[in-house]
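tool_call predict_complex ligand=NAP
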Amino acid sequence: MRADRDIIIIGAGAAGLTAAQYAARANLNTLLLEELAPGGQCLIIDNLENYPGFPEPLPGIELSEKFEEQARRFGAELQINSVHTVTKKGKLFTVDTDDGELTSPAVIVATGAQHRKLGIPGEEDFSGRGVSYCATCDGPFFKGKRMLVAGGGDAACDEAMFLSKLSDQVIMVHRRDRFRAQRALAERTLKNPNIEVRWNTEAKVIRGDAKVEEVVLFRNDKDETYSEKVDAVFVFIGSIPQTQVVKDLGPELDEAGYIVTNQRMETNVPGLYAVGDVRATPFRQLVVAAGEGAIASHTASQYIDELRGEAYD
Ligand code: NAP
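tool_result ok
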């Protein structure tokens, strides 16, 4: 059976672009499909200061351009082309796109996850101007400042703990009267003197001028509304993994809907790999995503070598 490509990578964020670079460098006929613009989460980072090898802060878009240039230099092809579904027949996947069907024996899913939003007035307007979805990325800009964290899961607690190293004025608001986070993490958060937890409290409006200045809070057990001066609002209320295109293949998902892989980035579907934010992983960072992309392409190239000449040409 003839395949159009050795490998198709879906999603051109840090994970997909790195996977494309490694696959192309391993001499695989590599196609990277992206529905919007390459870069993924990189594109929304104003100043990236924790990517190893770049000691001076650089705009995320510059890093993503470098990723892309490097992938192309080794021969990966990037197409702006939406993927609808991926199906599998025998050993070959069929990737159904806006431009028709493409086949390959290996597919890497690097479609990422979207941060769940509060959906309140001001959230979108102040995104990047005090509203953030990543404490590691943006927390250092608010060192010593008053910061609000919304959420009550592992991510909210983890990120509030990170912010508490930068400021002693971290206010955490959660809509219920107990955390969803794992007990040990929840207890550490509650004991942290730099974090003030406000239960039964919801953020309703984010206000400011050029940047965030205050947030309107609603105490839902007392029906009270008040405003609080803050310099930043960090939102960690879960994320939505973008698994739609591969759902028909039935990859194993964790409770939160992320794709489960082993440490070689293999899913339970032979030839299907998942990397970056769509994968069940404990630490969602660009550097982690890039590393996972490299591992997946390495694993996939071994798998393809085994199939070549047997299941496809
Ligand atoms: P999560 O576990 O789904 O928790 C989301 C939190 O946000 C919940 O407390 C939820 O409140 C709240 N929430 C949801 N929608 C809201 C809304 N519209 N307004 C206000 N609050 C809202 O999400 P996560 O914390 O991002 O974690 C996702 C997955 O990654 C989990 O499996 C988690 O275990 C894992 N993770 C693990 C670690 C770690 O192990 N250190 C760190 C980060 C993430 P309710 O509680 O009322 O539903």
